[in-house]
Amino acid sequence: MSHPKPSPLAKQMKELGDKFRSLDKDESGYLSKQEVQEGLKSLGLPENSVDDFFLQNDRGKDDQISYKEFVVFMSKKK
Ligand SMILES: [Ca+2]
């Protein structure tokens, strides 16, 4: 089976990866509160929701958002 275009899921995953990398300014592989704050702004969400964001999405409670946590957040969004 050949797909001339990437599947919608593959495309979505690539966009998520691109988005994550664009937010991860220092390329640490994690999003700090400051990086998330910038990201919320670019998503059109209120910047003051950054604390809520960490409460809901920082599952490791390490004050960093991993790519996995980011993907979970984006897939819940919509
Ligand atoms: Ca980072």
Automatic annotation (TrEMBL):
Pfam families: EF-hand_7 (PF13499)
GO MF, one annotated term: calcium ion binding
Source species, domain of life: Eukaryota
UniProt cross-references to Gene3D superfamilies, sorted A to Z: EF-hand
Segments forming domain EF-hand: 11-46
InterPro entries, per the entry: EF-hand-dom_pair, EF_Hand_1_Ca_BS, EF_hand_dom
Chloroplast is among the record's keywords: no
UniProt KW keywords: Calcium
Alphabetical list of PROSITE patterns matching this protein: EF_HAND_1, EF_HAND_2
Protein name according to UniProt: Calmodulin-like protein 6
Source species: Petromyzon marinus
